Amino acid sequence: MEDRIHLIEGKLDQLIQQLSPPATGPSQAGPSQAVSSYPAPSRASNDSVDESMFSRGGRREENLSNLNLKDASPENFGQLYLTWCHSQPIALFRPDTFLETLHTRELELLLALKALSLRFPPGTLSLQKQEQLDAMAKLSRRRAMDRVTDGHVELSTLQTLCILSIIDFTDGRVVQADLNLSMASHFAQSLQPSSTMSDSEETLDCIRSILMLQRLQGCIFPGARLASVSPMIHNGFPVAGHAKFCKSPEPAVLARTYVDSQMTTGILGHTKLVSEIWQMARKYAAYRVGPDELPPWNSHSDYSCIMQGHMDIDSLVPTKYRFSSDRFGDHNAEELHKRRDYWGAWLFIQLIYAAIPCLLNHPFLLSMRLRNFRHTMPQSFIYQSYELIMRHTGWMIYFIDLMEKKSFVVSDPALAHCVGIVATIHLQHSFVEDLSLRGRAQAGFEKCMKFLRRMGTIWPSIAIMAQNLLKLQASITLAHSPSSRGTEDDPQGDFSIDAQLLWDILIYEQAGRHNAAVDQSMFGESLKGETAHSENDLSLAAANLVGSAGISGHKTVPAKYVVPPYAPSEGGTPPRMTDQRTPAADRVVETRVFEGLGAPRDHDSFLQASDFNKAIENWWDFDYVNQ
Length: 627
Hints:
Low-confidence stretches: 21-62, 227-263, 481-492, 572-609, 615-627
Radius of gyration: 28 Å
Strand order of the largest sheet: 1-2
Number of strands: 4
Mean pLDDT: 75
Shape: globular
Strand content: under 5%
Structural class: mainly alpha
Largest sheet: 2 strands, antiparallel
Distance between the termini: 96 Å
């Protein structure tokens, strides 16, 4: 009966608006007659919705009564949000008061929360349910846009835009998602520092979440560099007085003192640093390299800058958040699930930390930065880059196996892209001559695909990312051509791959779209253009290193023999990087694969701070007399 009354009232409001004579000017209505066209905020106590809220100009839009909301009670979707979304990756609300305040939240925020949380638990998102959630998101977006256009922006509006940005991005509407974030950041930048806000703590959480989302999924243009001001290069070095290339400025939006002075403590405070370096790595992947770029090993290059930031993570993240102290594998599945808000943030730090050097040392991206380099490449850099990708891809597979063992499904879509990056490295190594490396790479690729398929049941864009990886795998062919690497060293020919698709998969904004194409969903016919995608782009094809271990197949690497990374045994022959490894060499690689941020103690060859302290104490206690 209450729903019918709301429906009748809405129709009467529409009828009165249509029968009322149009106003000829603002002077005809006095102050007492001036009524805002924006409806009063709704305090939703149940799932019934007034249709008139979604009617503009007498035209009825989508009807929520057609949506199946029987299971969308506040207790249900509110608990789903806390379990699967809170702190994974953003924290918009205080979990201790979130459920009891749901009935006071604005309608557009409730709709966005439902559209996000009702896709969980994983595996429950059917096609019919996806259509219903899309309708909720659309109505929420229209409601939020009404507030923006009518000048009634509230905290709930910013929270709604954050949630809609996640939904739109993972549904492939990248431009719409970036528009949501841009509006939210603009309003947040315009806020005045004040302690008299209705909920200053929740406001600060929202601002931090906007900043976090900008770093994780904000659009990065192909020409973007790590600094707004590029250095002037002279004889290969930056000129003194100019901005350093590796400067990592805080984004102009949201760089407010009152936010930084009250940064979140605990593990969420450390995800901020990790997201900063990850954003720099994303720019590195999307940047179109020019002919005058500094080589990666130069201390002023973008590569060196980000690797320094990666080292900062290793030095600033407290020991208690590292693997050696906070052992994920020591907890049972039930304990992990109850604290998803903590373990989701913990895995964020671990996986992003491992993905940064994988992206920086990705053979395809490095090859593009080396194609204009006409001098001998430092062999130490070849081994360093190879060791880094082997170590950190090993960590990524380790965590995938561990999550599989514990039945723990991460819900942060950004982490799926980290796995997708690692999958492309495994795909390259799946065609090397070294049988041991080839076997591990093929097994690693399958594990990455299984992980992505599982996350694809939550986020449509991740399912498409998995399809793009399979298409990339299918594009690999063997070309019998006496070209780049020479028939003497490569009698079987070279492997070719869809290089443009490979590059696009490494760019988060495109990886989750069909054929990894740029999003043009918001543009009309007058603004749409042809997708620039060519499998025969020679400039990109030259960066193809499929079948080589790391960048060892690059044209600047000595064609026949390279000095081995480790001193050979006396009388031995220096092995090539593509030769069969001896069991001893395999053991060396295995130990190094498990090095990294908080390596497990059973395999740890990386000294901890306590180890150095013990060594110093032993040195001072050394008995010289007995020696």
